[in-house]
Every structure is written in structure tokens, then in C-alpha cells.
Amino acid sequence: VYLINASRDQLMQIIGSIEFISEFRPYYSPSALLDPQSLNDEREFLQLIGQDMIIADRLTRIGVLDSGVNNAHPLIEPLLPDDRCLSVIGDGLNVRDLKNHGTGVASLALFGDLTSHLYNPEHYKVISDLVSVKIMPGDREEPNNPEYYPIINEDAIVQSRNNGAIILCSAITNKIPAENGS
Fold first, then answer.
1. Burial class (CB in 10 A: 0-12, 13-18, 19+), 145
2. I need a surface site. Which of 15, 67, 75, 133 has the fewest CB within 10 A?
3. Is pTM, for the whole model, over 0.90?
4. What is the distance between the alpha carbons of residues 169 and 61, in angstroms, rounded to a whole number?
């Protein structure tokens, strides 16, 4: 993969002189999404995406096993009702994303990279909805006991499946302690 700046004629020359080129794609800078000028810019972008979003008639349900999901997010709200926001840790009542991690994972699962939508606005067809199962506590919540990780994950999988998820997504990792001090 190479990032190049070339005219059409230059691209034609490249095709003729280099073997095994599989494709050319336009480059879009993601900086427009990562560094909004103001909160109003972000709201306008979300409103544009929301207006262009078409929800398919048949949806594939994705189970997000993470730190919970903020289903009040304007793009996630129509795809994750309160009754599909669950938790298998703590008292099971605090289902919200207090780490601001699971909401991002849910957005990626639903929409992928929306950067290209900034440059080529068109209707965006959503083909999935969500169930959220909180398996990771927030920073101010009691941490999970590592001894219970397997049962937490098993419980989350069962909860997801019981709520119709056929795809499961978990983007949680843990540092592996070095053995023998190495």
C-alpha cells in the first residue's frame, strides 16, 4: 500500500510499468473526524449521517461484549433499545459505557469508517443492530476478578445469544504478565 499524489496520466504510466497492482483508491484524511472544529461541527456531522442513514428491513444482530454502550448516541439509539443493554458484572444494573470504549466499538461494528461519507455524501444502508453486554467495569467501578473472566465471558455470550445476536464482537485485551521477570 502506497500513498501517492498522481494525475490520471501518471496513474496510467504506473499501471504500464509496475506489475501486480490490484487497485487504486482515493485517500480521505480522517482528520476531519478526529479533530472537529467545535461541538457544533460534530453535531452537524452526526445529523447529516443520521439523515442519510437507511435501516434495512432485515438486520443482523451483533453482540458487543465490552464496557457497555451509550445507546443515547444519536446514531446508535435507533439500533440499540434499552432492553438490549445488559451487564454481567457488578450488580448487573449499571449497563452504561463509563470508559467510552464500548460505544466506539459499537459504532465501528455498525458503520465501519464513516470518513468517506464526509467527502461523498450518499445514503448509508445499515444492515445490523446491536445487543450490548457489559463485561468490563468503568474506571471508578470495582475491577473484575481475573478468576471470573471465563464465567463473565460465557455469561455475556449466553446473554447476547438470548437476545438474538448471531455475531459476537469483543475488543478487550489484557496485558500478559512477563514470566520470570523477563
1. exposed
2. 15
3. no
4. 11
